[in-house]
Amino acid sequence: MSDIAHYIAGSRTEGSSDRRVPVFNPATGESEKSVVLANVQDVDVAVTAAKAAWPEWSKTPSLRRARILDRFKSILWDRAEQLAEAISAEHGKTHDDALGEVTRGLEVVEFATAAPTLLKGEFSENVGPGIDTQAIRQSLGVVAGITPFNFPAMVPMWMFPVALACGNTFILKPSERDPSASILIAEWLSEAGLPDGVFNVVQGDKVAVDALLHHPDVKAVSFVGSTPIAQYIHATGTANGKRVQALGGAKNHMVIMPDADMDMAVNALMGAAYGSAGERCMAISVAVPVTEAVADALVERLVPKIQALKIGPASDKASEMGPVVTAQHRDKVKGYIDAGVAEGAKLVVDGRDFKQTQQGYENGYYVGGTLFDNVTPDMSIYRDEIFGPVLSVVRRNSYQDAVDLIHGHNYANGTAVFTRDGDVARAFAQDIEVGMVGVNVPIPVPMAFHSFGGWKASIFGDHAMHGMEGVRFYTRIKTTTVRWPTGQRQDAQFSMPTLG
Ligand code: NAD
């Protein structure tokens, strides 16, 4: 067993903890690696290194910081295949999907290379007689990122490129289920010229997370993961005086109006529901056809496509969907399918019995594409985030019923409407209470120069990630009012100065 270690102050280290957990290949169900789980002391070593690196890094000209990120970006382009392979080996997603993840993360690095422009301040001349005011954005210090298993490269890259560009030093605590990507990233940042201690990786679980949340030298925490943990991170981090952005889970609805292009809608649903085995926070897990006729046509077209899904390992270029991440998660997803049947939903395509026959992959954590019809809002398969290849059809009779359904859900990460009617599309985009909206776009993930974040129980804290929201999160504003002696002398003034 090879151990996946931490990366602190420019080198790999196993730290002082003796706790390890195996890392599995979900495609085979086998484990050949383990990851170390940090103790409180390991976290302290990383924070100390990041704190020591901050004064110099924060004063490094932003153009120089940007150039290091630019070199890192070139390395990422050159080695995207290698990173994608590392992701697939521990996450299970297909190779092309992993490459897509790398590219979407790289785009945030691209955004961050504009650091000198992003950090330009404000200046007001003559706010009073001979008095000027300047407002600048300064870094916070040591900041931490705690990330989920489903995007082991992209989600960290939502965070650290912007944090580093703004002059912070960073500690990444990746998911313990697919930790290898984080170490490649750390080594490539060093290769790009990042000074030791500016970017560190601490592997671990709740012990490491709690140590970060309670460490007095960690000034801000970015989190992406499930809603209960997001809520916990936000409550604990803010109680300890930290700035916190915590993105949580999702249940994303796609409304299909009677005038929608049906071929487009069906293909969009296939990719959005079953891509990455449904393990995306922007996956569509609820289809909302408006009118019974649309629902019947939709289900009829979906069924053969779901049955024909090519489910297999990333090593097979023909695979459209891989396994889910762990045996426990596979059992949880199957448990939800059992629950849907028990609650009275109509199981149209059953993924529970899918058997992988490819040699060497028989024990992987595969679940077949699953479709439920006649799902109602009280059912657990509707209310909960399943995070697997399970699509629920909730039939509605009008546009307004569809909107009311979405508004009744606790999660509000992403949503989409499929229609040819500009009036309906505009009303939807304007009125829907969800953070990211697609019009004939099933997974409306904003590009790096915009910001990513949901509403309601899909986010805790004030700032979405990357784009200008990311810059605001990772900086604090300092406003300086300046007057220079003019040669005139005045007696001391004891009343509030006004312009008069
Ligand atoms: P998770 O909440 O189990 O874990 C996320 C991180 O929190 C990991 O680093 C993990 O080690 C840590 N963690 C887990 N339990 C903890 C605890 N009790 N105390 C402290 N830290 C803990 O999430 P996951 O299963 O890795 O990822 C899937 C979830 O992430 C889904 O709910 C998905 O919707 C969500 N997600 C959301 C977004 C978004 O942008 N909103 C993006 C990707 C994933």
Overall description:
The chain is an alpha/beta fold and 500 residues long. The protein folds into two domains: 270 residues, Aldehyde Dehydrogenase, Chain A, domain 1 (3-Layer(aba) Sandwich); 188 residues, Aldehyde Dehydrogenase, Chain A, domain 2. It is 38% helix and 22% strand. It is built from 16 helices and 23 strands. Strands 15-16-17-14-13-19-20 form a seven-stranded mixed sheet, sandwiched between helices. The chain has a six-stranded mixed sheet with strand order 10-9-8-11-12-22, with helices on both faces. Strands 1-5-4 form a three-stranded mixed sheet, covered by helices on one side. Strand 2 and strand 3 form a beta hairpin. Helix 1 packs across helix 8. The radius of gyration is 25 Å and the shape is globular. The mean pLDDT is 97. The structure holds nicotinamide-adenine-dinucleotide (NAD). The site of nicotinamide-adenine-dinucleotide has 27 residues, from helix 8.
Arrangement of strands in the largest sheet: 15-16-17-14-13-19-20
Gross morphology is: globular
Structural class: alpha/beta
CATH architecture of the largest domain: 3-Layer(aba) Sandwich
| Name of the CATH first level of the largest domain | Alpha Beta
Radius of gyration: 25 Å
Q: Approximately how much helix is present in the residues? A: 25-40%
Mean pLDDT: 97
When the domains are counted, the total is 2
Protein name: methylmalonate-semialdehyde dehydrogenase (CoA acylating)
GO molecular function: methylmalonate-semialdehyde dehydrogenase (acylating, NAD) activity
Organism: Pacificispira spongiicola
Keywords: NAD, Oxidoreductase
